[in-house]
């Protein structure tokens, strides 16, 4: 089990998982009439170009990505909500496939932060050379052939549905003894390169030659991450900014409009109300758990329902505080785990169903959010950042934003079409 780290107001973050794996078949999206159904395969006539050993492939532009548009003068911003998953993999609980279905049914896309070692079989573990640890070391499990096949299937289908595949890196090392918080910029570069390599070579490492490839070029697809235990952010950002990343979600922040650090959008996890407490709570399942049952992942069953309700209500209070206030994007993090009887998975699903179908709400991936942010007039974003947590413009949105935003440069997101 990975070490834990206490951060703001006594919360902690960790990712732990086992991946035994049970396969599930491809499913068609349920996104409404405007989205044509598909079964996970490229459309007839589309380009499929295998990359390397065929673990990945170029299949064209990702489906189901909306084109970002600039806010018009006086327009109220949409309420963005990002549901993200650390260490995403498909195991016997089938939570990856379940939440793909939840997303499709509620007009949502999400970000799945894949741990590279989930595509590396146990017998090949020595291929992983973690910084400051012996080869083959990891604080989370490696996988078996079936678990890898199941996880690859879910990643492939998720991407085809418009979801994002980010990275949670590999060995999930936390704490003072060689943890990611101590890693140098060069060590982070090595960890990132290895995380990519395991995704790009899973066929070679498993011998699963007949399994369809992942339908994207991971060198181009990978634009963001969340570090283990939210540690090591400073040097990770320096490494990531030199490797083409566009955002980071490894920090702790309030519900305010984001800024950039080292050229990356800072899309940190956020503090939201914690019902029954005087302090706020990080919007992540593990953090609710650690303040309810401690590090014991299965506490008193009599309290499971209450604890899940606390998380649901905390996330909803955070949502409505933004929705009725400054419209800052709400960032939520989770794990595919059944802690405290699965009560947090129930809470997350209930939140998705309540918020994602509301007017002016966009439940999106981090990729879609940064595309939208990059499309906006910098003056507009600067004005939005003047709003405090839960603060709506006193004179209303119509008079708040600049009357004449600067035009987007030609070719930039949100620029008029030629």
Automatic annotation (TrEMBL):
Keyword annotations: Signal
Superkingdom as given in the UniProt entry: Bacteria
Compositional bias of kind Pro residues: 404-418
InterPro entries linked: CE4, Glyco_hydro/deAcase_b/a-brl
Signal peptide: 1-23
Ranges for region Disordered: 395-418
PROSITE patterns: PROKAR_LIPOPROTEIN
PANTHER family linked to this entry: CHITIN DEACETYLASE-LIKE 4, PTHR45985
Entry protein name: Secreted protein
């Amino acid at each position: 089990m990975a070490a834990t780290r206490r951060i703001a107001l006594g919360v902690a973050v960790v990712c732990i998982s086992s991946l035994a794996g049970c396969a599930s078949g491809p499913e068609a999206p349920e996104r409404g009439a405007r989205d044509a159904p598909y079964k996970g395969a490229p459309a007839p006539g589309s380009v499929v170009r295998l990359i390397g050993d065929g673990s990945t492939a170029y299949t064209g532009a990702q489906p189901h990505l909306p084109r970002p548009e600039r806010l018009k003068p006086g327009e109220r911003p949409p309420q963005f909500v990002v549901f993200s998953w650390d260490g995403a993999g498909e195991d016997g609980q089938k939570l990856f496939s379940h939440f793909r279905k939840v997303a499709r049914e509620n007009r949502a896309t999400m970000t799945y932060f894949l741990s590279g070692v989930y595509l590396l079989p146990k017998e090949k573990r020595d291929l992983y050379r973690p910084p400051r640890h012996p080869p083959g070391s990891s604080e989370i499990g490696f996988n078996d052939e079936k678990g890898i096949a199941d996880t690859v299937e879910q990643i492939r289908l998720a991407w085809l549905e418009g979801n994002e595949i980010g990275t949670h890196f590999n060995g999930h090392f936390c704490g003072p003894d060689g943890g990611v918080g101590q890693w140098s910029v060069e060590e982070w570069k090595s960890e990132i390169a290895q995380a990519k390599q395991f995704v790009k070579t899973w066929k070679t490492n498993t011998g699963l030659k007949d399994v369809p490839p992942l339908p994207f070029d991971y060198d181009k697809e990978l634009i963001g991450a969340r570090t283990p235990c939210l540690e090591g952010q400073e040097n990770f950002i320096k490494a990531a900014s030199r490797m083409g990343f566009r955002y980071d979600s490894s920090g702790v922040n309030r519900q305010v409009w984001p800024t950039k650090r080292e050229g990356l959008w800072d899309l940190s996890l956020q503090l939201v109300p914690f019902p029954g407490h005087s302090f706020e709570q990080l919007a992540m399942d593990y953090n609710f758990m650690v303040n309810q049952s401690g590090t014991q992942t299965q506490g008193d069953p009599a309290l499971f329902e209450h604890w899940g309700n606390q998380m649901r209500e905390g996330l909803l209070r955070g949502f409505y505080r933004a929705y009725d206030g400054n419209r800052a994007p709400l960032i939520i993090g989770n794990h595919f785990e059944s802690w405290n009887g699965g009560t947090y998975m129930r809470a997350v699903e209930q939140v998705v169903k309540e918020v994602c179908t509301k007017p002016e709400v966009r439940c999106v991936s981090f990729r879609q959010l940064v595309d939208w942010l990059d499309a906006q007039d910098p003056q507009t974003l600067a004005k939005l950042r003047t709003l405090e947590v839960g603060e709506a413009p006193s004179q209303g949105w119509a008079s708040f934003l600049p009357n004449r935003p600067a035009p987007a440069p030609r070719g930039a997101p949100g620029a008029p079409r030629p």
